[in-house]
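Final report, Chapter 2: Outcomes

The project's central promise was a pipeline that accepts a single protein chain and returns its three-dimensional structure in a standardized token representation, suitable for archiving and comparison. That pipeline is now operational. To close this chapter, we reproduce one record exactly as it appears in the project archive, with the input sequence first and the structure output second.
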Amino acid sequence: MRKILFVIEGLYAAAGIERVSTNLLNVLTKNGFDVSVALFGTDKTTFFQLDESVKLYMLGVPFANKFKLRAAFQLANIAKRMRPDYVVNIAVPMMQVTVISKMLGMPGKVVTWEHFSFSVGSRWGQIFRLFSGIISCNTVVLTERDRQDYPTFLQKKIASINNIVQGTAIRSLLTNKIALSVGRLSYEKGFDILLDVWKEVVKVHPDWILQIIGSGQEKERLMQKIILYELEHVVQMIPTVSNIQDYYQNASIYIMTSRHEGLPTVLIEAKSYNLPIVSFDCPYGPRAIINDEIDGYLILPNNCLEMAKKISLLIEDFSLRKKLGEAGNLDYTKRFSEKSILFEWSKILK
């Protein structure tokens, strides 16, 4: 039985990385891997349901520069006791600790599972990703485009593997006058742009509601914009919920206006619920998920009028919503199933 030790800052947040990480931990455990997780701090809370067989270890210090040496000692000691075959960084920042732990005698091959594109963020971020790619025995990224962004000499060590998104037998009937968008209320998610789009949509379809589900630092600014545009009656701001499946099931269209993405789990989830998607073709994730004009529409970033036009097209044509939604659900089954993604991870953790 392969022993795998994952390293992540925490699993308490209701965010995308925590969700897909929990899914992978559960699937590996269910399929015969011995899975453990090292968490920073002392909070063992997991927002998403974690298989009871997954063992949790606490490093006892927060993920901050002044504590990283202490965290590295703790991680090395944990690994020496459990003797993992692989230590998996969940995101490149964890490498700042595991590389020190490795120098302290930590056993196991180091794999890094990166959730952000190579070129996103600061120059320092790119340097860290390059360093991580060199040091790690393998790096897992979310899309083929992400893999190709790494220097050619590293690409043989880079694997592109989709996120595991748990399937559902539930399908939206696509009859409710509701459009949905889910995510952290942060600048890169572009919900401010979504309000620009929705302002145009409701000029023609004032009886449709936009639900934005998420929490974050942009909430006040978004609320101010809703009031400025007089959209209070057609936009619902809903904090992060545990019953997100109910909202997917009740929606008829999914919308994404992100400025940039990794591999957005919400788009895969939308497909599993039969929802047609309208999304900006931002770097890099949406194009890896959406088949343009087959199961959704890819719009040039910031082209709000074109996006509003495509949303209106779906609003006005139920048969088109149904056609795109069913195509999306079929694509979900083919490309994002648990079985196919487990096979790819098994090749890395061989």
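Archive annotation: The CA atoms of residues 9 and 111 lie 16 Å apart.
This record, like all others produced under the grant, will remain available to the consortium after the project formally closes.
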